[in-house]
Amino acid sequence: LDCHLAPIYDAKGQINGVVSVLHDITKLKHLENMRTEFIANVSHELRTPITAVKGFAETLLDGALKNEETSRAFLQIIYNESERLHRLISDLLDLSKIELNQNLLNYSTVDMRELIHSTIETFKPQAVKKQLNIVEELDDIHAEVDGDRIRQVIINLLTNAMAYTPANGSIKVTLKAFKPEQIKITVEDTGIGIPKKSLSRIFERFYRVDKARSRESGGTGLGLAIVKHIVESHEGYIQVESEVQKGTKFAIILPKYKKEKIDGNGI
Ligand code: ADP
Asked: What does pTM read for this prediction?
């Protein structure tokens, strides 16, 4: 906050100072509102599966246990909802870890082609099952990144591409050198696409274009928020292009070498 206040005293005259202070209060208020909204969202997201678990367990205890078929169906729901809670909590933990340790990335020189290829391999069985074709165009590039975190980025983008692309579609992943000293990774699908008005919001925590569809595919609404955080903590950026019913293309641009921050926060 001190930092924000400093320019006030640089300005000529005291009235400017008052204006800046008010500006900062607005910013604080905005942060406060965002925090309140976030907690409300988390509570809501947690309550939905817990309500289901509680309700179905109660019904079983009240006598439904006697019927084996019903019991099985209810237990399956309880299991699915617990899985969902588990995913939600681990995504939330990931997000807060990344936020807390923005500057504590575990950098090393990573064979990016190998990292992306091996990640894609883990999706192959699922792709075959869903009749999706995955195409790779990966150049031989090494980069200084936090390999585990960048793998998480690829996993989240591929998970979405698989979830939002109907059977017989295809997913293409590319890795190329980009401008001097940068690399570009793209994940492109032939799926349902994202409406224009939603494009700027998909990186917000818990924002989904279609809540029911995201739930159905096991989504938590946190995947892209995590992606954005990881990419930005590497001093990179993310772009998205999409056309409804045609498909979506995400592009990640990362510096090839670790960037030293010069504002003093990076140490
Ligand atoms: P979710 O867990 O719901 O997938 P994300 O943060 O990963 O959450 O994505 C946010 C929303 O962006 C999704 O709910 C979905 O509406 C949209 N989205 C993300 N990736 C794609 C994609 N490849 N194709 C279509 N829509 C997508």
From this structure: 0.83
How big is the CA angle at 209 (ends 173 and 152), to the nearest 5 degrees? 40
Look at residues 103, 40, 71, 90 and name the one whose alpha carbon lies nearest to residue 235: 103
**Residues 75-108: pLDDT tens digits?**
999 999 999 999 999 999 988 888 887 668 899 9
Give the integer Cα–Cα distance in Å for 212 and 231: 28
CB-CB contact of 229 with 165 (8 Å):
no
Contacts of 139 (CB under 8 A, 6+ apart): 113, 175, 176, 177
Q: Is 264 exposed, middle or buried (0-12, 13-18, 19+ CB in 10 A)?
A: exposed
Give me the chain's average pLDDT, please.
89
Q: What is the mean pLDDT of each run of 10 residues along the chain (267 residues)?
A: 54 59 73 86 91 96 93 95 93 87 86 98 96 98 96 97 96 95 98 96 93 83 95 95 98 93 49
Query: Contact 252/121 with Cβ under 8 angstroms?
Result: no
| Choice from 123, 189, 192, 224 to test ligand 1 binding pocket (greatest atom count within 8 A of CB) | 224
Indicate whether residue 238 lines ligand 1 (CB < 6 A). no
CB 99 within 8 A of CB 91: no
**Which residue's CA is the nearest one to ligand 1's atom 23?**
161
Q: Where are the beta strands (DSSP E) in 56-141?
A: 108-111, 133-138
Give CA–CA dist 223/202, Å, rounded: 10
55 CB-contact burial (10 Å; exposed 0-12 / middle 13-18 / buried 19+): middle
